Amino acid sequence: MQLIIPQVSIGNLVQAQAIDADKLVNRGVENYKTGNFQAAIQSWEAALKLYEQQKNYNHVTVVSENLARTYQQLGENEQALNYWDKVKNYYGSQQNWQKVGRVLTEIAQVYSNVGQTGKAINFLCGASDIKNIENLTCQQGSALQIATQQQDKVGEIAALGSLGETYRLRGNYDVAIQYLEAAKKSDNQTYNFAILNSLGNARASRAQLWNLRAKSAQQQSVLKATEFQQNANNDYQQALEYFQASLKEAREQDNKSGEMRSLLNQIQLFYRSKTISLIPQNELEVNIQAALGLLDKLPDSVNKVYSAIDLANLPGVDEELSSPFTQCLTKSKLPNSQAKELFNQAIKISQRLEDYRSGSYALGALGHFYECQEKNYKLAWEFTNKAIWLADQKLKAKDSLYLWEWQAGRILKAENQNTKALPFYQRAYNILEQLRSDILIADRDFQFDFRDIIEPVYRQLAQLQLEFASPNISNNKELNKPDFNSALTTINSLRLAEIQNYFGNDCILTAIENRNIAEVVEENSAFISSIVLKDKTGIILSLPNQETHLEWIDKSQETLRQKIKDFYDGLIRGKRDIIYSTKDAENLYELIIRPLEKYLEAQKIQTLVFIQDSFLRNVPMAALYDKIDKKYLIEKYAIATTPSLQLTSTQKVNFKSTRALVLAVSKEIKIDDLLFEPLINVPLETKSIQEQFTNTKKLENQDFTISNLEKEIQNTAYPIIHVATHAQFGTIPEDTFLVTGNNDKLTINQLETLLRETNNNSTKLELLALTACQTAVGDDRSTLGLAGVALQAGAKSAMASLWSVGDESTANLVAEFYNQLRQPKITKAQALQLAQLKLINAKTTEIDIQYNHPYYWAPFIIIGNWL
């Protein structure tokens, strides 16, 4: 949905002292009103020179203000900020604080639009970490503080509305809605329409989040799933009511542009809320016809261009609306002839306006239409190349440029011109790498669309690179090294993008080290990377001597996913089944490990580090079974996993004389109507740690609270934090949390904030251990949370579990793990291997012989730095 940000109205234009300047200013106003922004800029910049010659700084400021706003409309944010800065300085010199406050709001909106929401909030209020805006005190000199002090109601509404939009972009929908509701209370006729639309967008976005949470809860058989779904339905209903109210306001004010926006918002809401039949199909038809009829009544403008594109791209009522520029629809809502007419109309309007950005979208959208709907690759290629040329002008439209470069690559690939397609895919990837930190954290809605609009670029490029690297797949000695290394770089970048998208923030950026596998692979260690494609899966081995080998698993995603599910289910049944059948473990060993064995044995490899993809992240690799040697994989190799090579430290740490902080909950806990069973063996687990590390501090049961944890880590740096409590990993970070001892939950984002913002240096945290984790079975995104837990918490590595065992076996495993870890030449991966072997060999020791079942030892993994 296109954003509506309440903006301060264009200033009253003063009469120029020079008749030429006066004419230029008024001409610019007329052009602006009709949406011809380029012509408006041309007139105003000419007028500006005349005013500067006359040293008429008041007039200079007014025209600069309008230029700033117009450049902002065109997406040329750097130019906009330059003009806003001049305007702010002038009003500040005149001590016109009311105007200073309003300009701060305008500046904040620019920063918000380019993804720098933290800066935007600083300009608007300064207080960013809030849950409730009641009794909010903004910092001195911020837009909202100035508006309140100056009793400027218009400025206050604009600041509140802008704060609402900024928090919506950050994904903090609760706070966004509070700010927007506060702005709505003023009942300002000028702003009501915009505020109502913003509230509708915020509610619709929150509904999507509730849908994700409901799905995650269903996969974990959590009772809250029904409640979460009802919350989604309520938000969808509220969104519809706001959009309907905004449509009424727009019609009462004869605001044709606003009317179109409200109609399009309702149309898009139909597709987003189809599961609950919120909007009847006949009402959808009415809205579409109203929008089509209204389009001809709108003056030419950039918004008219995008409206025409949106209408032409509408899918059939049975289609899922996700990303109209990247997905091929099975059926369009409008007839092909009508859709083409709308696309061509959009192109002509953008040409008249001389607006490169909207013109690029119109041309690219028509190219996509020919690519998908008519399979006319000649015309698709022609229009896509025109879109690339326009988007590339002044390099101002990179967010669309990657779309058209990718589209060109797809078109060539569809015509079996893979060699020509590769450079286009590579350029799309390069642009995404430049933009990634902004687009993945700027708009939380990208978390919903990531798999449609970003991830496929990486996967399709990696597939091409691997195919070029191994023209003769049956003979891996023929590998093309440059293409192979490029493929590894692409796959590793995808891992990084997935993690960043999951957590939706930029905390991990500080940990990025641009290295390739050859630079970090250790003697006796090997990396195994995977890339899951539609019809096959690539397994890539990187060895210490810089040899690389590629093997393909020639099975579809669905077939491989089912094999992994069967394997996983068989392990979980170990809670009740004493005898374990290794059949499924053998099947996966044959697919993943057997083709690589000869290389591993030749290099005398001792440790395997997996960089897994998609549902392969759910595989407890330690339990794969070699039916020839009659051994589990963990009996042959130490095993670790890392979410991304660029985020992994490879510095060895000596744990011989260090302290530990233990956070433990053994009693029954109830959170949000979800009952967590008592972990009766936690006291044994914590006792074993205290015996290993005499300088250990323990916060157990009622003592383990968020406030107590904060106080403890503010005073003391702990290289090891061991958490013996239930930990749940869900589809989104909000559902990824640790259970505390006072019936509360500590989300992984809260833990990250605590560890990074304490007075001591949080980088001293070497190991975060989580021994009672539970991931959502079959949920690829929940294992992203597990993969990134150490990273998000600021730890170099983590020892965690894929499922919660909650048995005395865990205490035995933990005791042996720390015992081995304290040995000078033992790595973390080797320490865990030895601890797991102790359980596997339970029949020869004094512990329960049942513990040799992989249910008890297989879920434990090392994440991150394995040394």
Low-confidence stretches: 1-17, 440-444, 473-477
Strand percent estimate: 5-15%
Q: Name the overall outline.
A: globular
Number of helices: 35
Overall mean pLDDT score? 86
The chain-level structural class is alpha/beta
- Binned, the helix content reads 55-70%
Describe the biggest sheet? 6 strands, mixed
Major sheet strand order: 11-8-12-16-18-19
Distance between the termini: 47 Å
The gyration radius over C-alpha positions equals 29 Å
How many DSSP E strands? 19
Describe this structure in words.
The chain has 867 residues and is an alpha/beta fold. The strands form five sheets. It has a six-stranded mixed beta sheet with strand order 11-8-12-16-18-19. Strands 3-2-1-4-7 form a five-stranded mixed beta sheet. α22 packs across α31 (780-787). It is globular and about 100 Å long.
Key phrases:
alpha/beta, globular, 35 helices, 56% helix, five-stranded mixed sheet, disordered N terminus, 9% strand, 867 residues
Strand and helix map with partners:
Layout: H1 19-33, H2 37-54, H3 57-73, H4 77-93, H5 97-113, H6 117-124, H7 143-149, H8 153-169, H9 173-184, H10 189-219, H11 224-252, H12 256-272, H13 281-295, H14 302-312, H15 336-353, H16 356-372, H17 377-391, H18 398-414, H19 418-442, H20 445-453, H21 455-469, H22 481-503, H23 517-520, E1 525-532, E2 537-542, E3 548-553, H24 557-572, H25 583-592, H26 597-602, E4 607-611, E5 625-626, E6 631-632, H27 633-636, E7 638-641, E8 660-664, E9 669-671, E10 674-676, H28 682-692, E11 696-700, H29 706-715, E12 720-724, E13 727-729, E14 737-739, E15 745-747, H30 748-757, E16 767-770, E17 773-775, H31 780-787, H32 789-793, E18 797-801, H33 808-821, H34 828-840, H35 854-857, E19 860-864
Parallel strand pairs: 1-4, 4-7, 8-11, 8-12, 12-16, 13-17, 16-18
Antiparallel strand pairs: 1-2, 2-3, 5-6, 9-10, 13-14, 14-15, 18-19
Helix pairs in contact: 1-2, 2-3, 3-4, 4-5, 5-6, 5-7, 5-8, 6-8, 7-8, 8-9, 8-10, 9-10, 10-11, 10-12, 11-12, 12-13, 12-14, 13-14, 14-15, 14-16, 15-16, 16-17, 16-18, 17-18, 18-19, 19-21, 19-22, 21-22, 22-31, 24-25, 28-33, 33-34
